[in-house]
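Two proteins, back to back. First:
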Amino acid sequence: MNAIEVSHLRVVRGGRVVLPDLSCTVSSGTIAGLLGPSGSGKTTLIRAIVGVQRVASGHLSVLGKPAGSPELRRLVGYVTQTPSVYGDLTVRENLAYFATMAGVASSAVADVIETVSLGALSSTQVAQLSGGERARVSLAAALLPSPKLLVLDEPTVGLDPVLRQELWDLFHQLAGKGVTFLISSHVMDEADRCQRLLLLREGAVLADATPAELLQRTQSADLEAAFLRLIEAEVSI
């Protein structure tokens, strides 16, 4: 079963066609990387998947239901590029609030704090945290209802290499339990950590392949070079 199915999606924002005719799928239980330069349509596609973006036409289903369906609210976790937590509350107070809003047991708060390694900061006001620490609080909030799909927009921006590795280890652990990930990034060195890659450029899917398939297809030594070769090939057509 596919966790995400997008067919002929067309999105217009501010009078500009951002996604002209996009089709793609993401299989359940996989970590899919959504990669591409700024302006390629990554965030617009993400917004459409989580149901906060108006679409002009096309079909988009998430976990077997139309994107934005009320039934998906507890099944889909969304972490925006800008941490969406309250600066005047502590880490624990933030998560207790979001747990109440999500209708989950208060015991889940301690679990997600441990999961994202924020135990030592649980009583710290969020305004006093670093950008990377605030991002981890946002991730913890998204994990509270035990979602089946996690959509993460640039989740490791501003994090040190050790914490980035810890988070990617966590993503793979959760994927092993059946959670699907769609992770947006413009950092190509993170592409190797994904099981499948969707490369976007100017609102179109340039490639949909595993990292190994992409390297073989382009005869490249690394994924950044592979992406550049795909762009050059498209431009020369």
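And the second protein:
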Amino acid sequence: MSKRPSFVIDADSHVEEADAVWDFLDPSFAHRKPQVIERAVLKTPYQQDAFWLIDGQTFPRPYGQGAIMFGTPVASRFAKGKKFSIESQTLLPASARIADMDKLGLDVQVIYPTIFLDTLSQDVAFETALMKSYNSWLAQTCAQFPNRLKWAAMIPLRNPREGARELQRAKAMGAVCGLIYGTAGEKVLHDPEMDELWAEAEKQDMALSVHTGWNMTSLLNKMDSVYCSTTLGVVPSMFGLFSILGGGILDRFPKLRFGFFEAGADWLPYMITRMERLWAVYDRNKWPGIGPNGPRHWLQNGNVWFCVEGNEQFLPQVVELLGEGNLMTSADLPHDEALDGAIDEIQGRSDITETLKTRILTDNPQRYYGL
């Protein structure tokens, strides 16, 4: 295994939210504050026996249509059984996470949410209030270790105007990127209504991270198991990639930078090959709304980044397509997909150069996040 760079950035890890994240909830929604309920459920996958109760609905959903799984609330046996302490999972205190980072040789970690992998409410105003409370709490928490803990702000996509305001507020509080999903609820990201948000992100020079997650409820409801929803979690990211490269977003806002997280990158060559093949048929002269540049243009221009996993079979092909300057990796703490060894897997690969390894672990995330 090659020697690690002297400075390693984990581009994507998470907090498992505790009650404290709602401490900043708008008082007008105080009566709807999420509550933790504990109950014994026979044969529940992952020993999930604690749930969030939000507007009469429980999260996560281990069974049935729309099944989705995550490790919050941490009162569950599932969370308690993880190798990372509850203190580290919740960042309460944040020093517990720093201790785990030190053990893993991570100098900086960018913190993403967990609970917002699902749509928590169909009430857009309430969803926005939950996101704003989360952002305020995380800003305060990461500020305890500002050189070690960086954070991604939740951006309410279903309300683009409010999303633009929240992006501006989050940047002022210290966020290094805005977290979005592959769709804005039931709308595609290249819907003209979204342009106000993209314009603000470009103005703020704020990276936009397309994370796996189910913002389109109608699509999630077709998933009938956690295995199904987790495996197909890349599908919304594919929606997002099309919108960004083929839907005209970057043609209208060419200074934006988008990153794709927790979906790997093996699917990128397939998507680009397909988009380019169809570009000749559905180009901008024949289909209004499609931008003037082909999809590969924005890859070569450096606007699109990918967070890769250490064992991806087609990583060399991704490098050939994307170049060496736009790849990162993550430890994904404290989630259950066992990616905390990804850094060592990158280090141990023989099919990429030592220079690229340093770029993936240090240089590229520094540039993406503007650290």
